[in-house]
Structure formats: structure tokens, C-alpha cells
Amino acid sequence: MTEMNMVQAINGTLDMAMAKDSSIILLGEDIGVDGGVFRVTDGLQKKYGAERVIDTPLVELGIVGMAIGMALSGLKPIPEIQFQDFIFTAMDQIINQAAKIRYRSGGEYTVPMVLRTPYGGGIRGGIYHSQSGEAYFAHTAGLTVVTPSNPSDAKGLLLSSIDYGDPVIFLEPKKLYRSMKMEVKEGDYRVPLRKAAVVREGDEVTAITYGSMVPLVKSTFEKNNVNGDIIDLRTILPMDIEAIVHSVEKTGRVVIVHEAPRTAGMGAEISAAITERALESLLAPILRVTGPDSPFPYRLEEYYMPNENRIMKAVNKLMEYR
Amino acid sequence: MPEVEKSEEKSRLIKAYTAVILSRTLDRKIVTSQRQGRVGFYTPTMGQETLQIGASMALEAKDLIYGYYRDVPFMLHRGVPMENIINQIMGNRDDSALGRQMPSHYSDKKRNFMSVQSPVAAHLPVAVGAAYAQKYRKTGAVVIATFGEGSTSTPDFHAAMNMAAVFNLPLVFLCENNGWAISLPVEKQTIAEIWTKAAAYGMRGLRVNGNDMLETYEVVKEAVKRAREGKGPTLIDAISFRMGPHSTSDDPTKYRTETVDEGSDRDPVVVTEKLLKAKGFIDDKLVESIKTKAQKIVDEKFEECAKIPAPDPKTAFEGVYAETTWMLEEEVRDIL
Ligand SMILES: Cc1ncc(C[n+]2csc(CCOP(=O)(O)OP(=O)(O)O)c2C)c(N)n1
């Protein structure tokens, strides 16, 4: 066990996986010589060579397309998109190619690719270095969308993703890259995909969240002695509906927290899924604490991000229903 | 050269040189202030001053600039007030974009400098549309689009090049080829030289020494003239060197050993001083006084701007649409 942050955990995991499996190739902008703008791939090109850790030209569409082709030909590519905000020119490759190749080829072709990309706010990146685009991906059947909320999960989820067999969009909450440290087990261990984690248990309310918001919801519940479950989805698509319904049946009150804008965000999908399955258990309307329906600002970032105050307002409102 | 012309040339070049020095002085000030925690982030422009100012000299007020995050010298020469630039970097109340954008993302409609955005090259197809509109509306204006050489790898660049040529538009593509895209040297970005890419689109492609302000000026002037006369777009590959880090978050010692130091022969400031001295337009005394004055202006403006408070929190949620939405109204009530 060593104490490490998420950057170190992901770096170590990539290292471990590459040492074991020579079909793993990393590709992306500034990931080799520079070690990545967040240093996530630091040292890996030195260790594994420029053929396995590829500094690509500046073209996201090319990076993802090339990774898909590698995956179709026996490799296990792990492309990096420097910021999730810059993935949009590659969406054709992601949505029309990666997500649909298994289906359109009758299963003859598959795309075992893990696309890593940092997302979210909290580093004063302004409009184009802060977006949380999970819902764009979650709207696409064929993709699997994963986001870790701590260094230990990052390792276990990444290892599971590499062996998963279908394309995974691995969203790394950049706010958490260096802001938290924890013990990370050595060696190979897996955190299963499609399974949520209950990271705090209680009876009166269920908070459903993921990625960057998990530590915030946890500290809010701890500080305010909220007697509730906190569900860390870990996999956003497909989400762990059983874990959600199980908790809602116990508490009857739900708050969903995400950084992305509210409208057509994951909160809407989670909320619909709950009412379809557990309406009778609900004691209060399902509330969402999210980013607003406006672009992400630079200077006034702290007003955009969900915070303790807003989460508690929602929790208190839920508790008013008896 | 007749006397009048000569004195006109002299004042034009001294104005340009002054802009070079102002840019360099401001650049240093912002980088230092970033290290002191007074500025959040910045993309230095050091090394690209003369190519931008040479280009700016070739433009008219009605021309449109679709620029990118390193175009401070361009803006200063074009007459964008320095405080607008500093206010943007601070994201304060007087920033025209109210602190919504990250530093280095300038906008100045008054001087036809289009709002800068982050995804590189995404402004190039947009510049094509702007050029089409100039042609259609017969404004006589030319659009100049700037971008780094790394940006030429994107689909946006190729789409824009092709369309500009197909529609024979008044558009000048000015590639600020500083040799590096963060850590990737141009030789690894592309095998062909940038200017040769024009041929594939049936466009004129030229290379120019961006450290030579006059050469850049002449080449851009000619390209702009052709564009104005309806003779179509040009790609200009302006060679320079990114003397600083990619941004204040970047550590170039991780990936490059080659450096160009301030005051060295490859520093465009030095090149320009030699050039103007040879023409007899400046001497050491004038240089000294321009530099002292620039430092004073920069220091004063910076401190003035630093006193301006943050924008009102409610402004973070305004201006999304001409008319706001009920969703946002609801959300803002919860937030503020
Ligand atoms: C589409 C896109 N991908 C990645 C980035 C991250 N990024 C910012 S600047 C940059 C390098 C740009 O190099 P170049 O176009 O040569 O311009 P320079 O910064 O050298 O002036 C990269 C990769 C981005 N802004 N946009």
C-alpha cells in the first residue's frame, strides 16, 4: 500500500498494464516526451518507447479514429484527449464508429479501447477547460462511460476497462487529480464496471453522484451529520439501477448531484429511472443539485460549481416532506 | 525615396517598433505577475511580435481578424487599449467578456478582433463564413485568420482552406509557425512544410521570415491586396520561435533544449532594432526612451487594472441567449 494521488494512481496503473500486455498502446497530444499536460503519462515513453507511447499531431479526430483502427487489429489502444472540451471533433469517430462497430458487424468486429480524458471544473479553466460532457456520451448506446472519484477506484476501474472488450469513455475528474491522496493497493485488483459503490450509509436520504462531486457530497454529509446513503455510480452508462432502487426503497428521498448542466443531464435519466421503478417508495420529489444551464465561467467559477450550501438546501427541503 | 514618403515610413515603423516593445514589456509583466499569483494563467507571446505587427501594418480598420490566444502584439498595434487586454487576463468587471473566459481569450469588436476561443483552429471555418459575407456584401474588407502551426493538423484547418479556395474568398491564412505546439516540434507535427499545404487546395502558399517585420509586412500586404481585388485566399507560413513556455502552466525543459534568449540575434526585438537603426530611424537614445516609457505605461496600467473588482456574480449566468431561459432563472435563484 502506498499513499498516492489520482495522477500517480493512473500513471502506475498504465505502467503495470503495459508491462504485462504488449498490445497496449498509448496515443495522444503531448503524452510522450512531455508526459502529458497533467503528467498522467509521465515517464511511460521513456520506459516503453515512442512506438507504444505516441506523441500524435494535434488532431483529436485522428487520435480516436486511429485508436479504433488499432483496436480492430488486435491492439488495446488507450488514447488520451487532452481536455474533454476538445473531444467534439472526434465525436463522429466515437458515436458513429466506436459505439456501433460491434452492432453493425454482427459482433465480428469489436473495439477494445479505453479513451481517457480529463473533465470538469475546479481548476479555473474557464469555458473550454471545464466542461462535464458525460451526458453526450451517455446518450450513445454502445459506449460505456466510467468516472472514478478517488485514486484507488481509478486504478481498479481502469484495469477493468482495459480488459472490458468494448469502448470505454474514461472520464477523469481533473479537480481530483492532485487534491486528494489515499492508500492504493499494490498489484492487480479490479473495481467492477457497471457496479455502483455505496460510499456512506444512512436511512433518510439517498444522494446519487459520481466523479468529481463524490468527495464534496461526502464531506457535506459528514459535516452536517446527514443520515443518508451516498451512491457513487462509478459507471455512468450503463448505471447500476439495482443499487439505486435498493437505496431509494430504504430512504424514499433522493438528491442527485452533478457538475454538468441540469437540463438533459444524468440527473434527468436517473430521476426517470427511479420513478419508473420505485414511485411508491418516494416521500418527496427527486431534487437535483447541478451546474446551471449556462457555459462554465472563469473568474466566477465557484458560483457555478455545486457546493455544500446548495446540497444542504436540497437535503433540508427533502427532509421537510414527511 | 522622396522625403515625405521617407518620413511617413519612419513614423509607421517607429509606431510598429513601439508596439513591439510595449508587447514585450507587457508580456514580461504578466508572466512575472502570474508567478506572484496575481494572474491565473497566460500564454506568452514572446518571439511572435514582429510577425503579428508586420501583418497588422498591412491591414485597414475595416478588415477582420480571426485571431488566437497569442495575438497580443497584433491587438496592441491595432489600437486595442492595453487595459482591455489586462482586464481580460484578470477577468475583472471591466473585461468586455466579464471574466467568463480564461486569460488570453481576448475580444474587441470595435477593432474587428473576433472573440478568441480555445479549441484550436475552430475559428478557421468561421473565418471562411466571415470572408464570404464580406464578398457578398461587397464591403471591401479582408479577413485575416491567425493560428499556430500545430493547428494545421486539424480537420478545421483543412475544411477552411478548401472552402476558402473553392469560393475564392478574401481571406488570408496567417500561420504563426513558432516551431512548437506545446511539446511537439513542427517536424513531428507534419512532414511537409506548412506553406506547401496550400497547393493541395489550389491556393497560393508563401513562406516568410516572421522575425523580419518588413518582409512580413510586404508579404501580407500583397496577399491582402490580392484578396481585396478578388484574387482569392493565400496561406502564409510565418516562421518564428516560441521563446517562452507554451503557457504559464508549461515547463519546456521537459521537452526541448533549444532556446532563444531575449537580446540574442534571433530575438525579433533585436532584429527590428538592427533593421531600424540601419535605416537611420532609431538610435540608442530613442530605443532607451521607448523602453522606459513602455515600462512605465505597462506598470501603471497593470496596477490600475489590478484594482478593479471581480464582475458581479449574477453576470456569470447572463448573456447565454438574448432572452434567458426559465431553467437558468430557476437555477440562478438557487445559486445566488
Ligand atoms: C482542438 C484542441 N486540442 C487541444 C488543445 C490543447 N492545446 C492548446 S494549445 C495547443 C498547441 C497549439 O499549438 P499551435 O497551434 O502550434 O499554436 P501555439 O500554441 O504554438 O501558438 C494544444 C494542443 C486545444 N486547445 N484545442
> What is the global morphology of chain B?
globular
Q: Output the helix-strand order of chain B.
A: HHEHHHEHEEEHEHEHHH
Low-confidence segments of chain B, ≥5 residues, pLDDT <50?
none
Class per helix and strand makeup of chain A = alpha/beta
Separate helix tally of chain A: 12
The end-to-end distance of chain A, rounded to whole angstroms, is: 45 Å
Runs of chain A with pLDDT <50, length 5+? none
Instruction: Specify the structural class of chain B.
Output: alpha/beta
Q: How are the strands ordered across the major sheet of chain A?
A: 9-11-10-13-14
Mean pLDDT of chain A: 98
Q: Please, could you describe this protein's structure?
A:
The complex is a heterodimer of chains A (322) and B (336). With 322 residues, chain A is of the alpha/beta class. Chain A folds into two domains: 2-184, Thiamin diphosphate (ThDP)-binding fold, Pyr/PP domains (Rossmann fold, 3-Layer(aba) Sandwich), CATH 3.40.50; 197-320, Rossmann fold (3-Layer(aba) Sandwich), CATH 3.40.50. Chain A has twelve helices and 14 strands. Chain A has helices spanning 6-20, 44-48, 60-72, 91-98, 101-104, 134-138, 151-162, 214-223, 241-251, 266-278, 301-304, 308-320; strands at residues 2-4, 24-28, 53-55, 76-80, 114-119, 144-146, 168-173, 182-184, 197-200, 205-209, 228-232, 235-237, 254-261, 287-291. In chain A, the strands form four sheets. In chain A, strands 9-11-10-13-14 form a five-stranded mixed beta sheet, sandwiched between helices. Chain A has a four-stranded mixed beta sheet with strand order 5-7-6-12. In chain A, helix 7 (151-162) links the parallel strand 6 and strand 7. The mean pLDDT of chain A is 98. Chain B has 336 residues and is of the alpha/beta class. Chain B has a single domain, classed as Rossmann fold, CATH 3.40.50.970. Chain B has eleven helices and seven strands. Chain B has a five-stranded parallel beta sheet with strand order 1-2-3-7-6, with helices on both faces. A two-stranded antiparallel sheet of chain B has the order 4-5. In chain B, helix 1 (3-35) packs antiparallel against helix 9. The longest helix of chain B has 33 residues, at 3-35. Chain B is globular and about 70 Å long. The model of chain B has no long low-confidence stretch (mean pLDDT 97). The chains are: A alpha/beta (322), B alpha/beta (336). At the A-B interface, loops of A face helix 11 of B. Thiamine diphosphate sits between chains B (70, 118-120, 147-151, 176, 178, 180-182, 242, 246) and A (29, 58, 60, 82, 86).
